[in-house]
Amino acid sequence: MSSKKEKREKMERKDYEKTLRKLQVELCHLQEWVKAKGLRVIIVFEGRDTAGKGGTIKAIMERVSPRVFRVVALPAPSDRQKSQLFMQRYFEYFPAAGEVVIFDRSWYNRLGVEHVMGFVDDKRYKRFLKLCPQFESYVIEGGIQLIKIWLEVGKEEQTRRFAARVDDPLRQWKLSPMDVASYQRWDDYSAARDAMLKATDTKTAPWFIVRSDDKRKGRLNSISHILGTIPYKKIKRPKVKLPSRPNRGKYDDQAGLKGRKFVEERY
C-alpha cells in the first residue's frame, strides 16, 4: 500500500476519539497555563463553507472552560456597524489576561465573502488588503499571540458536504441562501484566498493551512498545531479531597419537593 493511498484513507472513529481525548487533556493543561501567566491569545479559523470550522472549534471547546476559551461568531454587521471603522466591532471581543478568543470567521470576511459577493467596493478591499498586516502587527506588538488557521477543503468534498446538508434536518440550518450563491463561485473564492495569503501570510502573523477533507484528521491537526504554537507547561494542581458531610439527619431534603411540578419522565 502506497503512502499516498494511506493519506487518503479516512481515520477510524475509535482512533480519532482516543487521540482527541489526549489532545483535549493537553488543552486543559494549556488552559491552566494561560490563566496562570495571564496570556492573551487569538485563534482565527477561516476557510471555505463546509471546511469544518464549526466542528473543529467544537472539539476544542468540548472540555475547556468557557471562562477561559471564548468563541466569537459575529453575524452580518448592522447599519450602524457598517458606518463604523471596519475593525471596530472586532476589538470589543479581543482577549483580556488569561483568555483565549477563537474567531469563527473574522475580519478576513472582508477579503473573502465580502469581496467575492460584492459587499465591499474594490477600493476598500484593496485598502484592507494592504492595511491588514499592519493591524495584525500592532495586535502582536501589544502582547496578544495571534494564530491563524485556514481549513482547506477540496472541491468534490465540498459538493458532497453541501449535498448532505440538503436532506439532513440536523444540518439544514447550515445551508443559507448565501451558501448556495457562494457554491457557484469556487474559482472566485480560490482567487480571493490566494490574494489574501499573498498579502497577509507574514513572518509576524503567518497562516497555517490544514487539509480538512478528512474532518477528523483536520480537527486533530488543528488542535495539535495550537498546542505546539503556544509554549506551555503542565501546572501541578493540589489534589482535592472531599470533606465528609455532617450526618445530622435533621432535615429531609426531599420533603420540600412534595407537590411540586416535575418534568414528565418520558425516558
Structure description:
By secondary structure, the protein is α/β, with parallel strands linked by helices. It has one domain (11-155, 188-230): P-loop containing nucleotide triphosphate hydrolases (Rossmann fold). It contains eleven helices and five strands, in the order H-H-E-H-E-H-H-E-H-H-E-H-H-H-E-H. A five-stranded parallel beta sheet has the order 2-3-1-4-5, with helices on both faces. Helix 7 crosses helix 10. The protein is globular.
* CATH class value: Alpha Beta
Unreliable stretches, pLDDT < 50, 5 or more residues? 1-6
- Helical content class: 40-55%
Mean pLDDT: 93
Strand content: 5-15%
Count of discrete structural domains: 1
What integer value in Å does the Rg equal?
Answer: 23 Å
* CATH fold annotation: Rossmann fold
Task: Describe the global form.
Answer: globular
As laid out across the biggest beta sheet, the strand order is 2-3-1-4-5
- Straight-line distance between termini: 48 Å
Total E-strand runs: 5
CATH superfamily: P-loop containing nucleotide triphosphate hydrolases
Q: What composes the largest sheet?
A: 5 strands, parallel
Q: In DSSP terms, counting alpha (H) and pi (I) runs of 4 or more, how many helices?
A: 11
Structural class: alpha/beta
CATH architectural type: 3-Layer(aba) Sandwich
Task: Put the structure in a nutshell.
This protein has eleven helices and five strands; from the N terminus they run H-H-E-H-E-H-H-E-H-H-E-H-H-H-E-H. By secondary structure, it is of the alpha/beta class.
